Amino acid sequence: MDLTYEAIVHGTPDFPISMFPHSPWYFSYHYHKEYEILLIEQGNAIVCVGGDMLAVKKGDLLFLDRYKPHYMINPVEGEEMAVWTAIVFDSSAIGGSNDFCRDYMRRNLPALLQRSGGTLQSDIDKLLEVMESSKDNELLKLRAHGYLLEILFELLGSGDYRVVQKAGVNAEATQAVHRAIEYMETNYGRHLSIEEIALTGQYSVSHFISIFKQHTGITPIKWLMQTRVKAICKLLCETYDPITELAGKCGFDNISHFNRVFRKHIGMTPSVYRKRSLSPQKLQQI
């Protein structure tokens, strides 16, 4: 099973657009069959696309091609996370069920970075507003399609962007990194050594660390820590279990070490994160 591939269908067959607004979280290594437009609304981050490391800041926008592996990390550990909005859509959302549309977008909209503003920002805000109220309204769905087209037209017509060059990546090494990430995603709840992780790629430890960092920008152990922190953040938002119990479930056997790692990655304590994430009604149940 490829845990880095998002098999979930974004949107519905008759409305193949999804929006993830105002998300205060970095996301792990993954890819999907749809296109994605990623807007940085607050803060700074590093977005890794294929073999490229992109420093992004408030107002920057990134277009991602189909099946393009990507993830986000904080540029400085301990800083508060960036806030972003993602628009994920199938080519059929713009009348592109045929090869012409896919080929045109692939040629003219590679992964690109640009400052967001003016008409582009206005169209994104309008799309967000319509998406929040268009579930059962056919006219609003039609408007959403129109705003998405306007966003793409603005991207194509603007000269204010930087095209990201594709980096040469060794296919065998890439697969080794994929296997290691899947292994960590599956086994993060128990003790994992760097030697055990390196074995999944059939490389020596030193060589494996080198290729992993080349592909992801960070070491395997740092990736493992981020995976564990992401998992416990999800549990903090969804459960009322004690924090010490959740830390153990996510692979932390020392609560002091866990607290240091969590604060280093998230910029706040687990209890503060839970209070910010849960509604007052849910907090009363803890």
Describe, in plain words, how this protein is organized in 3D.
By secondary structure, the protein is of the alpha+beta class. The protein folds into 2 domains: 17-163, Regulatory protein AraC (Jelly Rolls); 171-283, Homeodomain-like (Arc Repressor Mutant, subunit A). The protein contains 11 helices and 9 strands. The protein has a 6-stranded antiparallel sheet, with no helix packed on it. Strands 4-3-6 form a 3-stranded antiparallel sheet, with no helix packed on it. α2 runs antiparallel to α3, α4 (171-187) crosses α6 and α4 (171-187) crosses α7. It has helices spanning 99-108, 118-131, 138-157, 171-187, 194-199, 205-216, 220-238, 243-249, 255-266, 270-277, 280-283, and strands at 17-23, 35-42, 44-49, 52-57, 60-64, 70-73, 83-89, 112-115, 161-163. The protein is globular and about 55 Å long.
Q: Which characteristics define this entry?
A:
alpha+beta; 2 domains; Arc Repressor Mutant, subunit A; 286 residues; 17% strand; 9 strands
How does the overall form come out from the CA principal axes? globular
CATH topology of the largest domain: Jelly Rolls
Share of helix, binned: 40-55%
Count of discrete structural domains: 2
Q: In DSSP terms, counting alpha (H) and pi (I) runs of 4 or more, how many helices?
A: 11
Q: Name the poorly predicted regions.
A: 280-286
- Let me know the largest β-sheet: 6 strands, antiparallel
The CATH architecture of the largest domain: Sandwich
Give the strand order, joined by hyphens, for the main sheet.
1-7-2-5-8-9
Extended strand count: 9
Q: For the terminal residues, how far apart are their CA atoms?
A: 36 Å
The whole-number mean of residue pLDDT values reads: 78
CATH top level label of the largest domain = Mainly Beta
Beta fraction: 15-25%
Radius of gyration: 20 Å
The CATH homology group name of the largest domain = Regulatory protein AraC
Structural class, by secondary structure, is alpha+beta
> What sequence of helices (H) and strands (E) makes up the elements?
EEEEEEEHEHHEHHHHHHHH
